[in-house]
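For the sake of clarity, the format in which proteins appear in this thesis is described at this point. The record quoted next illustrates the convention:

___
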Amino acid sequence: MNAKRSDRRRARRIEVAGRARGKIKQIIEASLINISTVGALVEHAHSIVIDQLYQVTFHLGETDVTFQARAVRSFVSGSQPLPGGRARLIYRTGLEFLDVRHEDVDRIIRAIQGGSGGTSSLHLLGMAPNRDQGGWPWPGATI
């Protein structure tokens, strides 16, 4: 290791023999673009993994609707300027609903069409990837 680099570190690094395992969870805030009884298109500022399972939560005023969905497609749809001349990529992701009840989807649609301002927020939380589909290198890893 470069002596100059080690001088800038605030704490001494310890090398790990073998592989340490853990979980990283990240809540992704998203905007709903469109919805049907079987899926939705959402827009967000974080990349996701195709075929990954996500816990989707719609916050409808006083109540939440939570279910699982699979990311079936995702693409960069634009960018958002950041200070310093940088930019953040904006993604659109197609979600396939897996365990949602039709009455819950109807509640979401009614909230959107009812003029109540739609959903107050929408969150995606990555679930453990399927290792058979080549998932992440450590079990239980989530985004």
Observations:
- The mean pLDDT is 79.
- The beta strands are 27-35, 39-44, 53-60, 63-81, 87-97, 121-126.
